[in-house]
Here is the input.
Amino acid sequence: TQRASYLVGIGKAEVDLRAIGQLPGIRDIHQVSDDYQLVSRKWRVKPTVLDLGDGVYIGEGSLSLVAGPCSIESEEQMEKVLQHLLDNNVRLMRGGVFKPRSSPYSFRGLGMEGLKQFHQMARARGIKVVTEVMQVSQVEEMHDYVDVFQVGARNTQNFNLLDALGGVDKPVLIKRGISGTIEELLSSAEYVFSGGNEKLILCERGIRTFETASRNTLDLNAVPILKEKTHLPVVVDPSHGIGIRDYVAPMALAAVMAGADGILYETHEKPEEAASDGQQTLNFEESARLIQNLRRVYGLRKELV
Amino acid sequence: TQRASYLVGIGKAEVDLRAIGQLPGIRDIHQVSDDYQLVSRKWRVKPTVLDLGDGVYIGEGSLSLVAGPCSIESEEQMEKVLQHLLDNNVRLMRGGVFKPRSSPYSFRGLGMEGLKQFHQMARARGIKVVTEVMQVSQVEEMHDYVDVFQVGARNTQNFNLLDALGGVDKPVLIKRGISGTIEELLSSAEYVFSGGNEKLILCERGIRTFETASRNTLDLNAVPILKEKTHLPVVVDPSHGIGIRDYVAPMALAAVMAGADGILYETHEKPEEAASDGQQTLNFEESARLIQNLRRVYGLRKELV
Amino acid sequence: TQRASYLVGIGKAEVDLRAIGQLPGIRDIHQVSDDYQLVSRKWRVKPTVLDLGDGVYIGEGSLSLVAGPCSIESEEQMEKVLQHLLDNNVRLMRGGVFKPRSSPYSFRGLGMEGLKQFHQMARARGIKVVTEVMQVSQVEEMHDYVDVFQVGARNTQNFNLLDALGGVDKPVLIKRGISGTIEELLSSAEYVFSGGNEKLILCERGIRTFETASRNTLDLNAVPILKEKTHLPVVVDPSHGIGIRDYVAPMALAAVMAGADGILYETHEKPEEAASDGQQTLNFEESARLIQNLRRVYGLRKELV
Amino acid sequence: TQRASYLVGIGKAEVDLRAIGQLPGIRDIHQVSDDYQLVSRKWRVKPTVLDLGDGVYIGEGSLSLVAGPCSIESEEQMEKVLQHLLDNNVRLMRGGVFKPRSSPYSFRGLGMEGLKQFHQMARARGIKVVTEVMQVSQVEEMHDYVDVFQVGARNTQNFNLLDALGGVDKPVLIKRGISGTIEELLSSAEYVFSGGNEKLILCERGIRTFETASRNTLDLNAVPILKEKTHLPVVVDPSHGIGIRDYVAPMALAAVMAGADGILYETHEKPEEAASDGQQTLNFEESARLIQNLRRVYGLRKELV
Here is the structure.
């Protein structure tokens, strides 16, 4: 893929913009002052909408739903989740094949074999695959089998990985760091964008605070703030954001009302038997109800003001 | 006022409940195990709804809106705010007369004289007064001029004040501490409740975290968690929760969708000229639009299952 | 008591300082720009040393040790603690008589009767009493029976209490708030100082963070920062700062090496039987060893450049 | 390198330990219950001391000093730092060649060429090289040119990197995550240890909190807690821990008194001209004074009981 080139002016250097504007290959010239320059609304006012093909879009103008299990476990499991998504007209499926686990003795995922099967089954049903990439060497390996690369909360500042994803022609969904600021999330997006990949999605997924009644503290303040600071789509993960199954649905609805462009959540046929994160995973009945409610809430949001 | 008496069983002591049940004056007997016992849903399943008179209620079944300036500044200011509330059918007005300010050199409020005038003007218009009490000695002094005592985020664990409010026959709205846990908020409510005052409202108003892009981090996770743990009404203050005027409205709408029973926010005819907190205060046009939107969102929430 | 008067210039008003300097009663004139003005080193370069009488000082030039139980429990208990302090030449005893407890069902202290007895017994042995005042009404009541008023971490921003202590002629030890910034601690000190009471001590006691392996996170960074920003003495409370008995001693020694002017810690004859905070309380053997070590570490610190 | 094999029993499975003990190659059998098993003091009581050759050790029994610039910048710079270390008998030099920077437009280090030169110059002077590895592909590449691999605070939970370092025969210094708990640091160490590399050093470097007066909040509580929980050496980085040049020295001294086995700090001939982190870097005069003082403090610590 041919990379776009950006001229990014840092600091106080004096440059004659007109001379640059006449160079071959230059499409556009801008002067911006923030640290995150290319992802800033000051540089590009119009919201970015990503086209994933087959009529699937992420960005303003539609509500993107991304659902699926924490971990890809088996063909049978994928079959059931895919059917559930088809039944509810959800076009994006999430599911991890490389699992970053804080203990070295936990289940670590099905790896590339699982991903290949996941991709094949999803594609056959017109569903897009969103899955986490954990290191530079996986970027090329996974490339043909993912529709959206996900960067997890522990890798938001893995700058080598961000650099590698800057050279890829597939969308990248970047999760906010476990204790990452909004500024840092924007800087991470800038890494990828300045590398040439403009297809970015930002994801609020809860931050670490002193509160222990929930797994994380879902920071919905970040939604309107990000929507004003950047032209990129902003989605919310309420499953990790609160971490308690019974409360995922109200937080998802609240996120849409705060302005989110999409919701990423965990669902599984039998959450009690999930290989990971079962305590925050919806069963299909809960998931179907949530999807219906999310669409009604999004419909109302468009009518307000 | 005659205080109710509660028997609260702490620890593992063996008691014959039947014998207690026959004592004169005992209405009811319960055994609960949490630290917050009387405010727990395990003790009282039915949600508490407070009746403030004149058809004003706080609790499940209606959406309570509490609006007004950070500080009561003048008769003219109050006149304008009260008219704005009447125009929009809002029945509860907030406004501080004792201002806890972190610098000793800032405006500290109009005091009791301001409160008396506030109360008189509000009552003449059928509007209820919600205002902050800062110390024990003010409880009696303020009593006849408030409809709801507010306990601020710096006093959530002022146990002497909570004790004093336990003996009062007016509702108490307790704000979550600046770095207070959900458990601590419930314990503070338990202080007042166990003192005999069951008329309590809990308020999420944002917590202190590492994030500096917003004044506080509004923890909407707290809404569904509190609604399940306690029978008391739960309201949200998005003005302090995010602290930036442009984002107050989306956070208010999100709070309702998360399950809040009411919204407490700051409004002023000219926020730019407010004596305090102008940066997070809505003007009347913004406030009117928010009220209308909040009611539509609440209407939809009731329709969802 | 006759209050001193301070002229504090806030904002940009133009004033002819020479004219003010000639007014009767004016001792000194300064222009400073921080929010905390009177407590700033920019206003007073020389470190403040408090003279409590009987040869007891707090401030640079000596290491102040303040030891004793969390709660005053009985005459026998006080007798034993006082003897322990005498044996080790410690001249300041801490002990609470009003206990702020997060649950309304916990032990709340012996109150004024306990304080009077505590004071009498301590004075008979030449030992100074440091105890917590929790509300405005207690200031006058407690005045004659305390040598140092302590403001607890939940009252650091109880501005009414700070105002009241500004009019008192006894030293005030202000603990940093549970989630209080260093700036806020200095502003709280400014409240008292600007009210006329210059006898202040600041205390780092740990802040609330996401870490749960310790009760609080002792922020020793605050010690050198406070020592540069203010002329007031800075002491550290390692008992609350880490909250685990075995680790109190190393943290106390570290605090001295970071530059603390004193250490406040909990000791009890039988920590296992203490009415409160036993898990972070040293027995007399541990306390005696700590005192000896603290003095050696302080001795070395004075030798270093 | 031949990897050691560990049998780690997870969960409740019943196993006949005697049968396992007779298998060829089994040196030792243990049953422990924590998540971090191999790094726990319950498994190995004796403190681990790492032997880096040439008489350089890290662990209990000596104070390890690791000093040097944030970034390796030039041959001249390295020459001067190495001479400074030789003059002060410091045997470990730190310096980054791959710089993880939050903005994509900042200096990113000299890379492998810089490392090779750094290593050659250091070895010629008998000084050991401590430098950060940022991704799996660098592990092999860097292997011959480092004496200690450093895992940075943004990679503490980069489990692929930890896995790769588990197969290496060089020591690994793991920094605590920016908002990492003590438990998580131990789990990260367990990753490397369970992969076969027992040569580990843990490093407290400050955590992210609400306090903004310092760059991070140095959590010295972590020192005694880690020293009790694990047999691994524990060092402290006061440069990142407070982030302000004037306060690095007192925090370093405090860390030693809290029980640290070593100190890692930044020094540069002209901190004002450093390519990164100059605001927290000591010049050689300050560094020499600190080294001298650290040794005196460590000497006293050994004398205390």
In short: The longest strand of chain A covers residues 64-68. Residues 37-303 of chain A form a domain with the TIM Barrel fold (CATH 3.20.20.70).
